Amino acid sequence: MGVVAIHGLDLTLGAATFKWVSSYFRWAVPAFIVLSAYYTALASLRQGAMPLLPWLRARYLKLLPPFVFFSMFYLLMFADLPNLTVRKLLTTHLSGYGWTGQYFFIVLFQLLPVIWLLATRRVSGILVLITLGLGLALYIWAPYGFAGSLLLRQLSDRPFLYWLPYCVWGVFLAQRQERWLARVQALPAWLKAVLVLSLPLLIAAMPGPVGHDSPYVMPMVLLVSIFYVPLCLGSFNSGAGRLGGYLGQHSMSVFCMNPLFIGLYRAYDPMDKVWGADKWASSVGMHVAGSALLLVSVVAACLLTGATLKRLGLGAVLP
Predict the structure, then answer these.
(1) Distance, CA of 4 to CA of 300 (rounded, Å)
(2) DSSP assignments along 244-307, one per residue
(3) Tens-place pLDDT, residues 195-235
(4) In 3D, which of 61, 158, 164, 55 has the Cα closest to residue 104?
(5) Sorting pLDDT into bands at 50, 70 and 90, what band is 36?
(6) CB distance 127 to 168 below 8 Å
(7) What is the pLDDT of residue 272?
(8) How far, in Å, are 38, 50, 103, 302 from residue 75 at the CA level?
(9) Least enclosed by CB within 10 Å: which of 37, 80, 152, 229?
């Protein structure tokens, strides 16, 4: 839901409101990284550690099909093919800027050896604190680094170092699952609900990135995301938590296919066509209803299409 909100609610909200809402959901992509490390480490604990090269081979073979398939699909859908050059293909369409979400694969490809290294060792609390502190220092320094280096600006937030604290934290949570899970589950339900809804407000209240264009290279995004993931994981025994768990299990479908359905929304512009531009622009209720409709319909379309692909034997493109 958070990823869809970031990518698509500019269709239903004013510019200022959309900026606030997209900031509110900036924890979503860091959560993907934390959960990737978390579930990888859990599997290592339960099944035993595999040697590095066989493990990497299995992981890359799992991630490359969706990366290649959707990169080619969105290349045909969005690219200016008559003017496409080899340089443009390599530096844009295959390097993280080809479609919204592609950069996640670029980051994860770099992080896989790090995740294996961490998951096959005991991650200490001291290591967590050190990487968190270095991550915050890197985020604070980033605007100055981007300002002084064209290469850093072009790389933006794709180097794995920006995401390393999330990997360390995910493995740490997996290796101490019973301890922190019991503490989170012991919290009153009302308090967990308040925290889940209010923590992202700390991100939304901050000004946007200064000196660069990455909304993820910000200290508050790092701090909120670190606390947010275990809080949500500890709530999976509730109805809302079970729904979140189901969406989490099928998150690759939403992550990879939301650009398609949001693109169809952009092409058709249903909000203006259904309600009329003047009436639409003047009604707060319609903005709220339109946003809810977009979120639910895009997520549902992604899940349905993903299930259909798997029934057709194309599950490899949505692991």
Answers:
(1) 11
(2) HHHHHHTHHHHHHHHHHHHHHHHHH-HHHHHH-HHHHHH-HHHHHHHHHHHHHHHHHHHHHHHH
(3) 888 999 998 888 776 666 788 888 999 999 998 888 887 76
(4) 158
(5) confident
(6) yes
(7) 57
(8) 32, 36, 14, 19
(9) 80
Structure tokens at 285: 């209720």
Length of the chain: 319
Selection from 291, 261, 297 nearest residue 17 by Cα: 291
Q: Which of 227, 238, 233, 170 is nearest to 200 (CA)?
A: 227
Q: How many Cα atoms occupy the beta-carbon half-sphere of 27 within 13 Å?
A: 22
Q: Is 182 exposed, middle or buried (0-12, 13-18, 19+ CB in 10 A)?
A: exposed
Nearest to 6, CA basis, from 175, 301, 254, 185: 254
Task: Check if the beta carbon of residue 88 is closer than 8 Å to that of residue 57.
Answer: no
Q: How many CB atoms lie within 10 A of CB 236?
A: 17
The DSSP output letter for 312 is: T
Classify the C-alpha dihedral 284-287-289-291 as positive or negative: negative
E strand or H helix that includes residue 2: helix 2-8
What are the E-state strand segments in the chain? Answer: none
DSSP letter string over 190-236? HHHHHHHHHTTHHHHTS---SSSS-SSSSHHHHHHHHHHHHHHHTTT
- Inter-CA distances, 170 with 32, 162, 254, Å: 10, 15, 22
| CA 56 to chain CA centroid, nearest Å | 22
Crossing angle of helices 102-119 and 164-175, in 10° steps, is 50
174-203 pLDDT, tens per residue? 998 888 888 888 888 888 889 888 999 998
CA-to-CA distance for 198 and 283, rounded, in angstroms? 26
